[in-house]
Amino acid sequence: MTKSEFPQNLLPNNISALAAYSSAKSQKLTGTTWLNANESPYTKTFELSLSDLNRYPDPQPNNVINAYAKYAGLNTEQVLMTRGADEGIELLVRTYCENSKDSIALFLPTYGMYKVTADTHNIAINALTQKLLLEGTAEQITSAIGDSKLVFICNPNNPTGSLTELDKISAIAIALADKTIVVVDEAYIEFCPEKSAASLLQDFNNIVVLRTLSKAFALAGLRTGFMLANTKLLKPVRKVIAPYPVSRVVAQIAEQALQSDAITQMRRQVTILNRAKATLVQWLNACSAVNTVLNGEGNFVTVQFKQKEDIDNAMQTGLIMRPFTLYEQNNWLRISIGNEQELEQVKLWLENLGTEQ
């Protein structure tokens, strides 16, 4: 008896046609300097107790929820812990969007998981532009959003680093009240904390803020995020989330990472990374091989080179960064802010390309 072919008819059409999100680590690259995933260069140590792994964990560990609520300046009822911000995206689509009927709006170029999640659940995409978001009026933006159930604003935006001002987010939320949920993805907000939309939750019931410990908190390997919103908005999401989404080990580490001294250390590291980023921007602006450097926030710089071959050559030498096709051009590169030694490798590469005197 021979093994038959897998019956493709078992797959729904939307999954058959789905293009999976290509993460930085899924590309199986080899190199010596890794600046492609917007990870922190800092490592952490934690104390763990493994004596109670025979028991199921708390679905929402109180100590972690309390600590993050204090950090975010919110009530504990406004905080939901998730497996990274990606689970927050998926939960919102599953909870609030009806299969084959609803749509989500997003502003391209932006984080790719919004589209992948919508495609997975057979939710239509209302593809708008970052130019509209940044330069359009709130009336123009909300008109373009139309009947979309969710609108995702990555702020700061990945991969461009651009920021949408809180006044504009407020105006959009007001215009879409009782119609659309405004989802503000703040994965990189620790690099510009004064721009957080968390302060808007006291006045809006249709704003959700997504957070993560993967970037400034240097815990990308922990896969821990938070959904911040008012109680009524979170109530149906709590029905949909898995019964035990947070392991005991994850909860222990997250609790320690949110202690006051650890937060102080994180903020000190953010200051160092922001300073290193400013230096990298200077190097890029001085390099004759560079065409455009995007100004923005976050622990990365996105830059356009005159020749795509320069990017390819860097990757082949073990300097691993994140190539992008932006604005229909394939010569863009996102460079994560690493430590001093890692960025020195970038400097040497740029000098070899040719630096203006």
Walk me through the structure.
The chain has 357 residues and is an alpha/beta fold. The protein is 36% helix and 18% strand. The protein is built from twelve helices and 13 strands.
- What does the largest sheet look like? 7 strands, mixed
Instruction: Give the total of beta strands.
Output: 13
Per DSSP, the total helix count is 12
Looking at the structure, what is the overall shape?
Answer: globular
The SSE order reads HEHEHEHEHHEHEEEHHHEEHEEEH
Whole-number radius of gyration? Answer: 21 Å
Structural class: alpha/beta
GO molecular function: histidinol-phosphate transaminase activity
Cofactor: pyridoxal 5'-phosphate
EC number: 2.6.1.9
Enzyme class: transferase
Write the topology of this structure.
Layout lengths: L12 H4 L16 E2 L27 H11 L6 E4 L1 H13 L6 E6 L4 H8 L3 E6 H6 L2 H8 L4 E5 L11 H10 L5 E5 L21 E6 L12 E4 L2 H10 L7 H10 L2 H27 L3 E4 L6 E6 L2 H9 L2 E2 L1 E5 L2 E8 L3 H14 L4
Helix pairs in contact: 3-4, 6-7, 10-12
Cofactor: pyridoxal 5'-phosphate
InterPro entries: Aminotrans_II_pyridoxalP_BS, Aminotransferase_I/II_large, HisP_aminotrans, PyrdxlP-dep_Trfase, PyrdxlP-dep_Trfase_major, PyrdxlP-dep_Trfase_small
GO molecular function, one term: histidinol-phosphate transaminase activity
